[in-house]
Amino acid sequence: MSRQQVLERGRYTARFAKSQADLLAAQRLRYLSFRAEAPDADGLDADAFDPACAHVLVEDTASGQLVCCFRLLHLKDGSEIRRSYSAQFYELSALCDFSGPMVEMGRFCIHPAWHDPDILRLAWGAMTAYVDRERVEMLFGCSSFQGTDAETYADAFALLQERHIAPKRWLPRVKAPRVIDFAKRLTRRPDLKLAQTRMPPLLRTYLLMGGWVSDHAVVDSDLDTLHVFTGLEISAVPPARARLLRAVAG
Fold it and tell me: 79, exposed or middle or buried, with CB in 10 Å at 0-12, 13-18, 19+?
């Protein structure tokens, strides 16, 4: 999907933001999703990374209602990893040697009143179209768990520890002042049903495609979340899943 193309599937449309009004709509949805407890109901979630990013909007075609958004920061290779949002929280020098184009996917959110799985499906279709067009070789970002009570997500973290820790050559190191070092702390076997239930949908999709995570979670008091660094080498995506994504991407 180029900056000009529109992707339509079912009742939804995905497109890139074209105007300041589009960006403001995305920032309002992000505020509603990430900062709903804050007192200003008409607030914006905005930061210094927004101007450097492309912003993808998923809308209900009939009404124009924005139901999902995310942003993309394109890096020519790992030498630019320190420009990323994630680099504020993770020591990412291991990824400096990554030789191909990379994209950071950030601020992903779905409107809290909308629960149609086709929204996430179309969002990944839009991402797939972008990855194919730009020949991206790694997708990465921060995958967030709502709230900062690590015990709520103990089974999810135990599953990540058991099956999904990053390869040593790419493993992020600790940088943030407050982290949950779950790879060392947890010794329990995960309850798989509970783990899947507590796993954020975006992270579940990353893992189904062969993604991996940091060995620790960052406590983000600003957004009231716990998040893990998440990476996906595009070459690792199972062929059957890649075909499904490309079918959505058109």
Answer: middle
CATH number at residue 165: 3.40.630.30
The residue segments making up the domain with residue 54 are: 7-249
Looking at the chain, which runs of residues are DSSP E strands? Answer: 7-9, 12-16, 54-60, 66-75, 90-91, 102-110, 138-146, 173-174, 179-180, 212-213, 217-220, 225-233
| Number of separate domains in the chain | 1
Q: Are strands 102-110 and 138-146 parallel, antiparallel or unpaired?
A: parallel
pTM for this structure?
0.93
Q: Is residue 50 part of a domain?
A: yes
Q: What is the pLDDT of residue 40?
A: 61
For the chain, the first-to-last Cα distance in angstroms comes to: 9
Q: State residue 39's pLDDT score.
A: 56
Domain membership flag for residue 106: yes
Give a yes or no: residue 2 inside a domain: no
The pLDDT score that the predictor gives to residue 249 is 85
Distance CA 170, CA 249 (A): 29
Rounded CA-CA distance 127/27 in Å is 19
Q: Is residue 93 part of a domain?
A: yes
The pLDDT value given to residue 186: 66
3-state secondary structure of 247: helix
Q: How many whole angstroms separate alpha carbon 44 and alpha carbon 35?
A: 9
- Measured CA to CA, the distance from residue 117 to residue 183 in angstroms comes to 31
pLDDT along the chain (250 residues), means of 10: 73 96 97 76 89 97 97 98 98 97 97 94 94 97 95 94 96 97 82 93 94 97 94 95 88
- Which tokens is 180 given? 């949950």
